[in-house]
Amino acid sequence: MNRLLNRLFLWQKFSILAALGALLISIPLLLYLNEANKSIKAVRQEAAGVAPVQALLTLIQNTQQHRGLANIVLTGNNSAQNRRNSKADDVNKAWEVMKQEGKQLGENAVLSQSLSEALAQWQSLNQQVGQGQISAKDSFASHGTLIKLLIKINGQLLDHSGLILDPEIDSYYLIDAGLVQLPRMTEALAKMRGKGAGILVAGSASPEERIAIENLFDKAVDHVELQTTSLEKAIAANPELKQHLSQVLEAAQTATQKANQVAQSEIVRAKEIRYSPALYFDQVTVAVDEQFKLGNSILQELTIILNQRLQQQSQRRGVLVLGIIVLLAMVAGFSYLVVRSITSPLHAAVGVASRVAAGDFSSDLSRYDGKQSSNETGKLMQALAHMQDALRLAAQEAIANVRIKMALDITSTAAMIADTRGDILYLNGSAQRLLQRRESDLRRELPQFQPDKLVGSSINLFNRNPAQPHLLAQLEPGKPSDLRIGAHTFGLIATPILDQQQQAIGTVVEWKDRADEIAAEITAANNARIRQALDKCSTNVMIADPDGNIIYMNESVSQMMQNAESAIRTALPQFSSRDILGGSFDRFHKNASHQRNLLQNLQGTYRTEIKLGNRTMTLTANPVKDAKQGMLGYVVEWHDRTAEVAVEQEIAAVVNAAAEGDFAKRIDASGKQGFFALMATGMNKLMDTSETGLNEVVRVLKALANGDLTQSIDADFSGTFGELKNYANSTSSQLSEIIGQVRSAADALNN
């Protein structure tokens, strides 16, 4: 197809376009014409159905009148026999007209069968009534069945002609009022006429018959109201109908009310039935005839409306077809002129364009300015001149771009370039390798990800949430941003690429795998938390590097050193708590080499105690190693045991004195707090109890030694001292008894 088009001249291509345009226009035109023809056919069919419907309404009207006259005759009033015979002739004539109109409708098996059935019923019924072979009641019922069938045929006629489906509001409601409601309403009035005439001939009416007359009029009134509503809607859609239908509508409604008044006064509410049957028949017939006059007027207006619609649609179709023909002729002529105006200057431009296409940018196009600049040739040549200049610059820029691309290809920075839509145009080797290293991990989150097929795809591929804005829209120009995909975080920096007019033509995105940076940030955050925890903990902590240089002191050890500074200076005169950080551990030891050897060979926890002036310190040292067991430094916990040592010495002095029998020595509790105050108080209480208990025992034993058996221990003691008290007092008492017994025995011997 392309080969064929390429071999065609421009005027031939325009001819093909013109043909295609004509084809495109013809298709909707044909569709419109088809619909227009259908609409016109439908209107014609509706118009053709008006005459048969009118003939059928006339047949219904005459059949209804024949029913009433037959009812009078069969009830016993032979004065109406001639009128009945005349009306039977009218019915037969109406049937002849109906058969003629039916032939114009075309083939319709259902409608033909219904008409044949109705004609057969009429012929049989007319013969029976004429020969007096049927009762008034059966005649009335048979007429009702026949008229019901005729009303059914009326509906079939409306369906067949399409009148029942009329699309316009005015004609639709006219059809409803004159062709649907009218037959039903006149049938109710006609039944009231025939049944009432029979009652008047009989000269009596049962309550059921009176109610039947009233119900028939109520039914007629219902249809009158529906008819009136439809006419009001039709007039609202077509106000011109009012002047043609208002008078005949008013006359029909007035005649109907008068008929009802006669029926009410002479039959329904009459005490005696004396009214003339013929007069009643004629008065009600006037109401029925007025309704049929209204129906004829409606049919006349409907015929006018349908004919006008048919004429308008035919004219509209003709005007459109003529307009399309004229328009096509104008388009064809104008197209010819346009083709000539384009092809002529193109021939002049082919030579210049050929040289430019061959890469010859040296053509002198200056002669095509000035006067010719306003026509196609001048503008085309000016465009070729601009193109030649642009191509010359583009060639120069292409060489520069090649150099830039070569530099980007070998740079270590991972770079990606996308156009203004976000489609990836280029990614260098570093970016390719970075994404390939993470391919397996990225594919778990981005199943469509293929690093070797990124060029040409959208950078929004890396946007896991489609509900979020485009990935490039999320990146602030020149500001580092993080892109998290699964467990990986990439650092992105988007920089817009601007042309000479400062318009964005793309974006360069620098990629960085931030796994190591994030790990370092997490480690730094953890170290910061540990540092803050160490700063605030109550344990005195000091950290040194592998060379023994102090690199950290928490607040507790700093405060401890400040408190002990004056005492330490007595042993180390150059000591200053402000100079500890950054100094060496050696300053705390007289034999620094020994301590350094211990630290260098330290594999586990090492504890020692040192004396600095009057301060006693315990040190707990542990090595700090990395994951590969490389030495990072040492952590040393300091504990100032000066107060503990003083208390230990006081306790030892008291214990030694007690061991030598001196229970009078006590621990000085002043200045002591916490555990040491509690220990001093408890120790002193122990010595007080021991001293008091032993002194009491000494006192009693001394008295015994001197022969004084009256002494005893009265103070309260518990535990061992309580038992000692009891045993001492018991010993003194028993010795006193023994001595008394000895004395008594001696006195007895003397006597």
Could you characterize the architecture of this molecule?
The strands form two sheets. The protein has a five-stranded antiparallel beta sheet with strand order 2-1-5-4-3. Strands 7-6-10-9-8 form a five-stranded antiparallel beta sheet. It is α+β, with helices and mostly antiparallel strands. The chain has 19 helices and ten strands. Helices cover 67% and strands 10% of the residues. The chain has helices at 2-7, 10-75, 81-103, 109-130, 136-161, 169-202, 207-237, 241-268, 277-357, 376-410, 429-437, 439-445, 471-474, 515-536, 555-569, 592-600, 642-659, 674-705, 719-750; strands spanning 414-418, 424-427, 481-485, 488-498, 504-513, 540-544, 550-553, 606-612, 615-625, 631-640. Strand 8 (606-612) and strand 9 form a beta hairpin.
Give the secondary structure arrangement, pairings included:
Elements: H1 2-7, H2 10-75, H3 81-103, H4 109-130, H5 136-161, H6 169-202, H7 207-237, H8 241-268, H9 277-357, H10 376-410, E1 414-418, E2 424-427, H11 429-437, H12 439-445, H13 471-474, E3 481-485, E4 488-498, E5 504-513, H14 515-536, E6 540-544, E7 550-553, H15 555-569, H16 592-600, E8 606-612, E9 615-625, E10 631-640, H17 642-659, H18 674-705, H19 719-750
Antiparallel strand pairs: 1-2, 1-5, 3-4, 4-5, 6-7, 6-10, 8-9, 9-10
